[in-house]
Specification:
Two copies of one chain form a homodimer. Chain A is of the alpha/beta class.
């Protein structure tokens, strides 16, 4: 194929027809990205297919939702990431079905042949059997979700400013977050800070500092998977920011303006115009499709159970990684759906594939090396959990900043984000406070 | 009103009920922003009403449309701009009607009383009697427009990559821009650069450098209002970037995949999936409403004719500024709808209002002081027109950068944008290349 010849637009799918083994990766999240990167130098042709043309740095999405960063700051075009790796091609498309016996993946624009298939298609929001709540709450998964949340929060303050009915005003200025895991904690902290600090002088008729931010968690403490000490520190930090934390509290019902909750048997109704859902995720329809095609086993959250080397029992050429995979972790609990797990799994399956090509003995089972967890609370506070080392406060926040920036710089030289952060830190400013059309289907 | 008392959410509209004269400003673009800013210290209460919660730095919108900047980089929340000016309040709302005899403005959430009214509501796209072309082309006026253009351009390359039909592929990779004024020239340059440089290594099956960018202009040269010498330089620079410039060419028809044009009597059909419209603007329905209510005179483009001090003849308390106003300029041509004109008009009407309050003699008629024009072509080239001083090339581009940055920094300390630009300049990178839902109604 002569790309230099301007006379022709004709081309052949060279990656399909070349003699090298074909690796198809579904999903350009943390798992898919690391798998592709680790295979970049190997004697294979890689096709990475994703619905979106960019990799999203999910851990900072709450910053977009609260006006601190722009979507462009936390996304990298997949093509830009792999432009120098000529054995990787990127396809924009949505996977529809699988033909494991013919080793084919069906997507909206055609078929892809594979010798090895890596499924890293991620998850969607889970409403614990209340799918109707999806219309009444906002979840934080995509860039569009974040823009919609930003729109909803900022609009609530705008409408308060011109609202004469005090009851309605209170409803507008009450923000409820369901779920006291890392995402819920980070959202609650950021919204409290937005209203207490960034917006405090912006209005004339209302005072954004009066806004109520309520964080609801069913367990008896925030960050249930974390050490007890850090849960206490987290609650203290949120108290300090003016967030109302309600543990041991379950959601019973949500309608357009009221969320009904139950604490220790007593029910309460909270009037709120904005309910954010950070209480759980569920596997996409990909898992059901896979299960139907090849008889894979799903766990209750819809994740696919995989063998010790992350492949399927009946199909050694299909690997499942990231949030879509059910992998047993310490204490018989499955590994959490977080970025470091997906990244390590991506690297691991790349190694399994390379070892097989070299005819090496089967690889050791996958083992997750926990390098630690960080949750940020507001502008300069975080909790850090590195095994026996647990700490909180400003130093934890600094660690959080450098870990995240390091990742962003690795892929896309997003040095600019570091500078913007520093700027926001000193000015308490959130520059990306736009109310724009979200594009989210109502 | 006690804003400190958390027990009450009650409030009164203090700005309406206070004894100071009320100034209502409709629109937070360049005209409205400068009018409000100039009145900030005066003994008046100001209400600025806008449909959007942010001021948009329109001259850089083409950078968002071509992936170089994020919307947050070129917008400033109106509330943030005026947070320290306690006599200015901002209202999010859309003006529906006027009652000039009662001195009231009707908006979607209520009424506003005014003693002086400044209308700076801007314009919308004008299709020269072919409103059906609005559905088939993309104009560049709002942030959503820019995101939609970005989506369309990037998607065209993505679809080319998986397209087997060479004819269809050529159609996808042909971008037509209608209108050879500053916006058309800047868009054409940026798209050419995107395809020739930024994307050149990103694809495997197609070469983005083959993309055709066609700029169509009805007059016999680009930038018709500019000195002839600069039109020639502009054309040279676009030729160098690989843009096909077609002057003396009129659009006859546009359908979904074909744009039909006529040059010197001979017709031609160009297959193109993406047609951008940069050929003219028209006043919003505000002008028709005003005209109907008070018998104002409209010019053919829908702009309102104003008196020498920018007020209406029958209503000295209503001022029209910015793109909505028809003000005679040099050579009996109306002043162009550009930012510097609007900014000077905003300052001017603020002075007229302040002079009236002081009981001073009527102000001198408005006179536009042309400080020069700049049009940028690609990454490091611009044309500059400062009266007798006309120049082009890298130095003109540097002037352009500093003029624009200076403005951005004045309002929002957007130093970050300067750094990002510098970064883009050295890396030829366009980081904000997201395909996201546009939110634009189809």
């Amino acid at each position: 194929m002569d790309l230099k010849n301007k006379a022709t637009y004709n081309f052949k799918m060279i990656y399909i027809t070349s003699g090298k083994p074909q690796v198809v990766i579904v999903g350009g999240g943390f798992g898919g990205l690391y798998a592709a990167k680790s295979l970049a130098g190997a004697p294979v042709n890689i096709t990475l297919i994703d619905k979106r043309n960019f990799h999203l740095f999910q851990p900072l999405l709450y910053q977009v939702a609260t006006g601190g960063l722009s979507p462009g700051d936390i996304t990298s075009p997949l093509r830009a990431v792999f432009k120098r790796h000529k054995n990787i091609r990127v396809i924009l498309g949505e996977v529809r079905d699988f033909k494991p016996d013919e080793k084919k993946v069906i997507y909206d624009n055609g078929e892809l042949d594979y010798d090895s298939l890596i499924l890293a298609a991620g998850i969607k929001t889970h409403y614990f059997g209340h799918d109707e709540w999806a219309d009444r709450t906002l979840a934080l998964k995509t860039v569009e979700d974040a823009i919609e949340i930003r729109r909803k929060i900022l609009l609530a303050f705008e409408l308060s400013e011109i609202e004469f009915d005090p009851q309605k005003q209170k409803e507008l200025m009450t923000f409820v977050i369901v779920g006291g895991g890392p995402t819920g904690v980070e959202l609650a902290g950021a919204i409290a800070e937005l209203s207490q600090q960034t917006l405090k002088e912006d209005f004339r008729a209302v005072n954004p500092a009066f806004a109520r931010v309520i964080l609801i968690e069913a367990a008896d403490r925030l960050l249930p998977g974390y050490p007890f000490k850090l849960s206490v520190k987290t609650r203290e930090a949120l108290d300090h920011l003016g967030v109302t934390v309600r543990t041991k509290t379950k959601v019973i019902d949500i309608d357009e303006t009221v969320i009904k909750v139950k604490t220790d048997g007593s029910e309460e109704s909270i009037s709120s115009g904005t309910v954010l859902w950070a209480a759980g995720m569920k596997a996409t329809s990909v898992s059901e499709r896979i299960a139907a095609r090849i008889g894979a086993t799903l766990d209750p959250a819809g994740r696919i159970k995989v063998g010790p080397n992350l492949s399927l029992e009946n199909h050694a050429d299909i690997f499942i990684i990231g949030d879509l995979a059910h992998v047993d972790g310490p204490g018989d609990r499955p590994l959490a759906g977080v970025a470091p797990v997906a990244m390590q799994q991506g690297k691991y399956v790349a190694k399994v594939i390379k070892d097989r090509l070299k005819g090496k003995a089967p690889s050791k089972p996958f083992k997750y090396h926990d390098k630690g967890s960080l949750v940020v609370i507001g502008r300069n506070h975080a909790v850090a959990w590195f095994g026996r080392f647990q700490f909180s406060g400003f130093f934890a926040w600094l660690v959080w900043v450098f870990v995240h920036i390091g990742y962003l710089i690795e892929y896309d030289n997003k040095l600019i984000v570091l500078i913007q952060w520093a700027w926001n830190y000193f000015t308490r400013k959130k520059g990306a406070r736009l109310i724009t059309a979200s594009g989210k289907k109502e």
